Amino acid sequence: MTKPKITLTIAGNDASGGAGIAADLKTFAEYGTFGIAALTVIATMDPNNNWSHGITPINPKVVKDQLVTATAGPGIDAFKTGMLPNVDIITVIANHIKEHQMTNFVADPVMVCKGEDEVLNPENAEALKDVLVPLATVATPNLFEAAQLAGLKTLTSVEDMKEAARIIHDNGAKTVVIKGGKALPGTKAIDLFFDGKEFTLFETDKIDAPSNHGAGCTFAAAITAGLAYGLTPKEAVAKAKEFVTAAIKTGFPFNQFISPVFHSGYRLSHHKAIIE
């Protein structure tokens, strides 16, 4: 039997199933890849305390051992990172990437939990900027994360996004896609892609889904799967934008706080188009 495309997520577990490795593995499956996961953190949410978050990091040695296991097989075609709870884990991952010369890397620089407005750990933001994101084939920050990575104030326009993308690219990331989403003014959900030479805007109509959960993870995982099939970063981002938009439209209320994006059935109608 021909080996399937193998995709790896290095991220946290979200017991709601909407984000983190759950969202990543579902996305990998919808794209038809064989998804594997290395767990970095367990994230919990307390429904009795206004959805407050708990963050329990995995021991860095255990993270390293998982990466050794994951990369001892027939080869990773593409991989991504998500929530990384401390500098030690970020460093372990960066060292493993360089040691094994891993390619097709999507860095989703998660810095906050949805519903929170503070960086999970300021030292993490620096480590992501200096150690991990420069290794990325595609970096996928949202507006807040892009501002942190670029050392800028709040991004409020496409021109701000362009400035941030240039800086992040100059710091080492091969390509950058900044997710404007619903945060930018106007009726369009705008993502900005930059490959070091030209900017491309990906636009869709905004969807009224104020509590959508897992869209960023799903978007990054879809880009990862696209890279595994040999798509260029720009092509992978275009397909991922289509994928996550469909997933947001079919999201559902999990509880009073979150509505996970849901992408069941996408592969049946779109998988052929993904790989052609």
TrEMBL record:
Q: Which domain of life is it from?
A: Bacteria
InterPro entries of this UniProt entry?
HMP/HMP-P_kinase_dom (IPR004399), PM/HMP-P_kinase-1 (IPR013749), Ribokinase-like (IPR029056)
- Keyword Transferase assigned to the entry: answer is yes
Any single GO CC term annotated in Swiss-Prot or TrEMBL for this entry = cytosol
One GO MF annotation is: pyridoxal kinase activity
Q: What class of enzyme is it?
A: transferase
Q: What is its EC number?
A: 2.7.1.35
- Which Pfam family name is an example for this entry? Phos_pyr_kin
Quote the catalytic activity from the record.
pyridoxal + ATP = pyridoxal 5'-phosphate + ADP + H(+)
The record's comment on protein family reads:
Belongs to the ThiD family.
Q: What is this protein called?
A: pyridoxal kinase
List the source organism. Bavariicoccus seileri
Classification of source organism = Bacteria, Bacillati, Bacillota, Bacilli, Lactobacillales
